[in-house]
Design a protein that fits this description.
Chain A has 350 residues and is α+β, with helices and mostly antiparallel strands. In chain A, 20% of the residues lie in helices and 35% in strands. Chain A is built from 8 helices and 19 strands. In chain A, a hairpin with a 2-residue loop joins strand 6 and strand 7. Chain A is globular. With 131 residues, chain B is α+β, with helices and mostly antiparallel strands. Chain B has one domain: RNA polymerase II/Efflux pump adaptor protein, barrel-sandwich hybrid domain (OB fold (Dihydrolipoamide Acetyltransferase, E2P)), CATH 2.40.50.100. Classes of the chains: A alpha+beta (350), B alpha+beta (131).
Chain lengths: 350, 131
């Protein structure tokens, strides 16, 4: 059987722009237009636009929605009010990570979850199976398009006011109704714009007309890795826990949610291994799955356009996880030296 | 800036998208425009050691872009005389000038007759068109 790849409402735009289209978790997505490095630099210095319409949107509504989400998600959802958003994790009974996501609150009992494309069905099924009376989970992903506009000049180019990070509001961009969220996956100032699927091309055209450089999944990956945002499926999985991954800050261990007992135990005893960030000392590019000497493994690796070096993240025994620790990475049979650094790997000079 | 697509007539081509410029019993090797375009901007070149033996159709090194790793396949057998250090230090040179400044190694051929099995530019262009 040949699986048919899904396309976002912006597929034709990507092809017209000369993007290289690749399969990505069941979607045909642009990996790059002009090149990963110039697109990466555009986001670090000016403004880039990403089609992230493949991501999933799940609405969770009803009087019991707050209590339900408190039980399902690791972070304290009661800490966000209307117009606010929060990074959180959907955990399993073992404390593993089913998905990492952003929850948006519109009104009491009205939430939107923006989930990874790869986990859209898993998250929906997980929540639907556990959905209590007085709460409805709906997958509305196909109704929306999502465009991330990121970079130090993004707000200026879109003529949007600088709102605090992790807030959202309904608004308008060049006549198109959008939900504007001060969120992103690049480490830069920026917004994610959510609009009706039928308005997607108008929104994309408006954003590009304002000078945003179209950017593909290639730059999205190098940007997020420089600032050590984990990628689900690589750095965090249903088999890895948030404490070992350094995501304890997104876990309210004082409340009850799936797997919290296990996570309290890991916090108490200290994790056996930790997800660290590292920079190559020798010329080499680490890649996912490469062994790290002493019982570790690279979970994400790339060439950093800003550092002009190989960088990555990976799990190593906790004893050797402090910044400055030497690592030896097996690069296709050749040992190559790296060292652990504080996260994020790339920090903007201020 | 990336180079425009071209396949010079004075080169010999290997189906794995490597080229050879033969001068006497020496040859300069590199990757074709098609290969560098498929990979994208190169960020790493892992060359062989000077003096190492390379064998026709076998890997002699690697080039990497942000997203991908590719083996370098030698179109000819011989001994490595020189490595292009500019391509090591600035791998993007290969994208900018794949047949000039972006050459990868120079070898002394051990069996110059091997060149007869390589494609000329016209045959390689057809090969690329089929990809």
């Amino acid at each position: 059987m040949v699986a048919t790849l899904k396309r976002t409402p912006l597929y034709a735009r990507h092809v017209e722009l000369g993007a290289r289209m690749v399969p990505f978790v069941g979607w045909e997505m642009p990996v790059q237009y002009k090149g990963v490095i110039p697109e990466h630099r555009a986001v670090r210095t000016d403004c880039g636009a990403f089609d992230v319409s493949h991501m999933g949107e799940l609405h969770v509504d009803g009087p019991t929605a707050p209590a339900f989400l408190q039980e399902m998600l690791s972070n304290d959802v009661d800490r966000i009010g209307d117009g606010e958003a929060q990074y959180t994790l959907l955990t399993n009974e073992q404390g593993g990570i089913v998905d990492d996501l952003i929850v948006y609150r519109f009104a009491p009992g009205q939430y939107l979850l923006v989930v990874n494309a790869s986990n859209r069905a898993a998250v929906y099924d997980w929540l639907k199976e556990r959905e209590p009376r007085g709460c409805e989970v709906r997958d509305t992903s196909d109704d929306y398009a999502l465009v991330a506009v990121q970079g130090p000049r993004s707000l200026e180019r879109l003529e949007l006011p600088d709102q605090p990070a992790f807030t959202h509001a309904m608004g308008e961009l060049d006549g198109i109704e959008v939900m504007i969220s001060r969120t992103g996956y690049t480490g830069e100032k920026g917004v994610e714009l959510c609009c009706a699927a039928e308005d997607a091309t108008d929104l994309w055209d408006a954003v590009l007309a304002r000078g945003a450089v179209p950017c593909g999944l290639g730059a999205r990956d190098t940007l997020r890795l420089e600032v050590c945002y984990p990628l689900h499926g690589n750095d965090i999985t249903p088999e890895t826990d948030p404490i070992s991954a350094g995501l304890g800050w997104a876990c309210a261990l004082g409340k009850e949610f799936t797997g919290v007992e296990t996570l309290r135990g890991i916090r108490e005893e200290g994790p056996a291994r930790r997800l660290v960030a590292f920079v190559m000392e020798e010329k080499a590019i680490p890649r996912q799955g490469m062994p790290i000497e002493g019982g570790g493994e690279v979970t994400s690796g790339t060439h950093s356009p800003m550092l002009d070096r190989g960088i990555g993240m990976g799990y190593v025994p906790a004893a050797g996880s402090a910044p400055g620790s030497e690592l030896v990475i097996d690069v296709r049979g050749k040992p190559r030296r790296a060292y652990v650094v504080e996260k994020p790997i790339y920090r903007k000079e201020t | 800036m990336p180079a425009a697509e071209s396949y010079p007539d004075d080169l010999k081509y290997h189906p794995e998208h490597d080229w050879a410029r033969i001068e006497g019993d020496e040859a300069t090797l590199g990757i074709t425009w098609f290969a560098q375009d498929a990979l994208g901007e190169l960020v790493h070149y892992e060359p062989p050691a000077v003096g190492a033996a390379v064998a026709k159709d076998e890997s002699y090194g690697e080039v990497e872009s942000v997203k991908a790793v590719s083996e370098l396949v030698s179109p000819l057998s011989g001994e490595v005389l020189e490595v292009n250090e500019k391509a090591v230090d600035e791998p993007e040179t290969v994208n900018e000038d794949p047949y000039g400044d972006g050459w990868l190694i120079r070898i002394r051929m051990s069996d110059p007759s091997e060149a007869d099995s390589l494609m000329d530019a016209a045959a390689y262009r057809e090969h690329v068109a089929e990809q």
